Amino acid sequence: MTNTRDALKMFIRQICKEKDLDPHIVVEALEQALVTASKKNLTMYNNARPTIEPDTGDLHLFVTKTVVAKVANPRTEMDLDEARIYIPDVEEGDEVEVEINPEEFGRIAAQSARQVVMQKLRDAERLKVYAEFKDKVGQVATAIVQRFEKRDAIVLINRAEALLPHYEIPHNARYRFGDRLKVLIVDVNVNSKGPIVKVSRTHPDLVIKLFEQEVPEIADRIVKILNVAREPGVRSKISVISNNPDVDPVGACVGMKGSRVQMVVRELENERIDIVPYSTNPIVFIKGALNPVQVKDVQINSETKVATVIVDKGQLSLAIGRRGQNARLAARLTGWKIDIQAVEDEIDETPDEEIQHQYLADFLSQMPGLDEQVRLAIMGSRKYSSVEAIAAAEPHQLQDIANLESPNMWRPLIEGAKQYQDALKEMKATEPASPESSTAPDEESSPESGETAAPPEAEELATAEAREESEPQPNA
Asked: What is the residue extent of each domain of the chain?
């Protein structure tokens, strides 16, 4: 009996510590489990009821007996004289509850009781989880990846399991056991299996909550995030406003050298985040939402909520973005349907400029790891529209094209441009000079003419005609 008492006491303490449960909950579950598991052993008794002392581990078993003059079944009946030892005024036919030897449970019942009590404790633990998380919907929590069930992830939040469904995980995210994540608690409900805490990594509010943790001005409600347009794991645009004219909302969110926004970016699998200052003027707001595109004009229709954005032809790809991403996010952020149209540049490119542009496109396609948005920004730039211009630039000068984390990140691009230039020079130096190229200088297109280069067949025909005209005539 001593061993049983010590074992129960240790069992209760262990469960309370592991599951962070109140001892009374554990004792109640254990008592119910003992009754359930001992039904076969206690069928001969009436109303068997076990009790456990949580501090000592003592197990008591009480049963109900009927008071009779002559006992026929000692398990269900009690002699009147014996009953009056417990209750002096008891009468024949009354029922009394008396304690019997707990060994009546039996060893098999005690073993099966452990399985039942664990189920009862799981139910109690789930109810505790529901009580803890039902008021935390919309808050951010730190979770640790525990395991995967099909495509869903099971994460641990303060020793409570939560479900991270596959559709709440960014497509480019790859999680492993033990990874620590910031998640947004989106739902807490109860089903047949108990409370389910559902969390998300794709919800737009996660971006807001992460900025609240990194930007004191947002936590203090000086700066407010009005709206979020997000494609999880790829890119987000947020609109911000300041209640204090002395506080720049964009600068507050970016932080010193981008420190604040980079903390959020790293937490969100390097998701690109555009911070747009809100404006009550829709034209200004739309232009800011399309940044870094150089917008020439915005024409709006207030009735249909349609904005026609005019950009240079070279800026069209950057304005639309990869698979329409930039325009789509800008439309969600501003609440306007955005129609982007291109106009021809005021100064047409000369054939030489077209060739330089082709060289630039070829060079950029050979640069490993170059971000698509940076490539599009370079191709749309007028100042750095050739390989030569990039090779002659300094890293801080190229920051005007796209604001990278550090100007030094431009150095590999500059070095690559210099190497590309050297390769072009070597290639041109080894090409044999064409004897026909000097026979008819007047037939060559002027760089200022704006005409496109003639096809090779036309050039050969023009060269042949020039050769015939240059031969001396018999009567000359």
From this structure: 2-129, 134-200, 363-376+383-430, 436-465
